[in-house]
Structures are given as structure tokens and as C-alpha cells.
Design goal:
Elements (H helix, E strand, L loop, with lengths): L10 E3 L1 H7 L3 E5 L9 H12 L5 E5 L3 H13 L2 E6 L5 H9 L3 E4 L4 H15 L2 E3 L5 H7 L1 H10 L7 E5 L4 H12 L7 E6 L4 H8 L22 H7 L6 E6 L1 H15 L5 H11 L2 H7 L10 E5 L7 H12 L1
Parallel strand pairs: 2-10, 3-4, 3-6, 4-5, 7-8, 7-10, 8-9
Antiparallel strand pairs: 1-2
Helix pairs in contact: 2-3, 2-6, 6-8, 7-8, 11-12
């Protein structure tokens, strides 16, 4: 069997979050992946399948997908070109260079970078690595749910799963994983920040919509249109997906609280999911009867993030708290 590029990550119980929710909270620590986020699961899997004998890979990314593509390419001994939008922090550009990738800065938001990546894939004969919209990605991401079932044991099933949504790749992977283990009745709380809320906007409109711009500081949630599969899942009567929004300030508060209580620094995109607990959304959904009183533990996917350090956190505080 070909080597996999991702690690089996820890599943940790959070005493502090459990107190807030009134039920056991487990954290799936995807921040511990070698590329810094869950993305290496799907992107590693896709690269194994499609890029073994490639001239090189090309990926459009504001951070985490690019880091995963660069990591996988380096392990496979192929070149990586990462196209990033101008909103990408210098920290990420440097980390991509450190992974041996060629970095090009194109456009203002991810969608601009992606147009360029598709063009270069065509003209230069490179293998295009999509950041969130591909069945092989979802298949790879599903492995985290298989790990959760192994960690929890046969008699324990989550009461709900909380995920961040950008383009919807993680959501599709989690749903794929839940299907694989027979947990499709487990509700999913899908979290986004206002200003990067393409999935929530699609659900409200009853069709896929394209946001005019990404105004949230959670740049890694910054796809202007969600993937069709994520939207189709939201319309399925067989699944319970609850879409919720938080402000950038709530996401920032979540990453600061998580750093204080769990001693782990994650990025704003991940803060959107953590805010489901820290801003009381889980408890509110239970009070409203939209989420049942948790019969099993709450599973939080800590998706991680490579776009954060203490300097970046300080910048966010100045921007959002002034």
C-alpha cells in the first residue's frame, strides 16, 4: 500500500468546553498534521492517485491547501507551484517557499488565484490540485471520522459534529466519513464567519450563490462559492446540517480562549467552529430544539491552520478590537 502523508491525530477531551456545553466535548486535533491542517488528508490522497508520474502539481490556495500540496509534492519528489491571492499573509508565502514550492501571487481573493491555476495547469501540463471540490479530497478527509470511531470504541457515537465551512471540502469529507461508519443520523453544525459565508448564503437562497467579495478576516474560509456537493448535502432529507454564522470578533475570541484553555494556537477559519461552543451557539440550538440534548459527546473538528502566529494574532486583535 502506498504511504499516506497524513498522521492519525489525537482525539482529546476538553474539560473546559465540556463544562460550557454540559456534555463531553472531544477535539479532533487536525492542527497536528504535518502541513498544519486537515487538508493533507484529502490533498495527500488526491496526489497519490493523480500526481505520481506528474510533471508537477499546481494548487490555488490562501494557505492550508497550498501547504498540503507543497508537502505532498515534496514527499513525492515532484515540483509544486502554488498560486495565492494577495490577501495571503507573508508568513504563509515564506512557509510555502520553505516547503520547496514556487509561489505566485495573483488577484485579490482565492477565486482569482484559482482561475490562474487552472490556466497554468492547461498550458504547462501540471496536475491541478483543487483545494476543496473533488471526490478524492472528500475520500481522504473521511479518514478522520474512521479514526474517531476507532478512538471512541464501538459503543459511543457523537451527539453532533462541529465543522468550519469554507468551500465545503471538509464538510463533504466529514459527511463521507459519517456515511462510511453508519453515522448519517449524527447532526452537523456547519460554522462560517460573516463575510465568508457562501454556504449559509446558498442555503438561504435555495441555490448556489457567489458572494460579491470576501470581507471576513478568516481568509481561509474565503471561497466566494461553495462546492455543489456541499450544497446538495444541505438539501438532503437524510442529513441534518445546521448552518450558523459568527462574527470575526467571535472567531477571534474563540482562538484566544482556545489558546488560553487548551494551549493551542489555530487560525480564524478554525475559530469559526470553536465559536460554536465559546459563543454559546450549541447551547442556544439545544434550547431552540434544533439540536437535541446531546446523547453522545460533541465532536469538534479542530481543522488547524498554517496562517497564524503570534504576530498575526496581534494584527487581528488590532484590526478587530479597535
Amino acid at each position: 500500500m502506498a504511504e499516506v502523508f497524513h498522521l492519525k491525530t489525537p482525539l482529546l477531551e476538553s474539560i473546559n468546553m465540556s463544562k460550557r456545553v454540559g456534555a463531553t466535548v472531544y477535539l479532533k486535533m487536525e492542527n497536528a498534521q504535518p502541513s498544519g491542517s486537515f487538508k493533507i488528508r484529502g490533498i495527500g490522497h488526491l496526489c497519490q492517485q493523480l500526481a505520481r508520474h506528474s510533471k508537477g502539481v499546481i494548487c490555488s490556495s490562501g494557505g492550508n491547501a497550498g501547504m498540503a500540496a507543497a508537502y505532498a509534492a515534496q514527499k513525492m519528489g515532484v515540483s509544486a507551484t502554488i498560486i495565492v491571492p494577495s490577501s495571503t499573509p507573508p508568513l504563509v508565502v515564506q512557509r510555502l517557499h520553505d516547503q520547496g514550492a514556487t509561489v505566485r501571487i495573483v488577484g485579490k481573493v482565492w477565486d482569482d488565484a484559482n482561475t490562474e491555476a487552472l490556466k497554468l495547469a492547461e498550458t504547462e501540463g501540471l496536475t491541478y490540485v483543487p483545494p476543496f471540490d473533488h471526490p478524492l479530497l472528500w475520500e481522504g478527509h473521511a479518514s478522520m471520522i474512521a479514526e474517531v470511531t476507532a478512538s471512541l470504541g464501538p459503543s459511543v457515537k457523537p451527539g453532533a459534529v462541529v465543522v468550519s465551512v469554507g468551500g465545503g471540502g471538509l464538510l463533504c469529507g466529514v459527511i463521507q466519513g459519517l456515511k462510511d461508519v453508519g453515522w448519517t443520523d449524527v447532526p452537523i453544525v456547519a460554522m462560517e464567519t460573516v463575510g465568508a459565508h457562501c454556504f449559509n448564503a446558498a442555503i438561504k437562497a435555495g441555490k448556489l450563490v457567489t458572494l460579491d467579495d470576501i470581507t471576513s478576516e478568516a481568509k481561509c474560509l474565503g471561497a466566494k462559492t461553495a462546492c455543489k456537493q456541499a450544497f446538495d448535502y444541505s438539501q438532503s432529507s437524510k442529513l441534518t446540517i445546521i448552518s450558523e454564522l459568527v462574527t470575526d470578533q467571535q472567531a477571534l475570541h474563540a482562538i484566544q480562549t482556545f489558546l488560553d484553555e487548551e494551549r493551542v494556537l489555530v487560525e480564524m477559519a478554525c475559530g469559526a467552529a470553536l465559536a460554536a461552543v465559546y459563543s454559546g451557539i450549541i447551547v442556544r440550538l439545544q434550547n431552540e430544539g434544533r439540536l437535541p440534548a446531546l446523547l453522545g459527546p460533541l465532536l469538534m473538528i479542530v481543522c488547524g491552520g498554517s496562517t497564524i502566529n503570534m504576530e498575526q494574532l496581534t494584527n487581528l486583535k488590532h484590526k478587530l478590537q479597535s
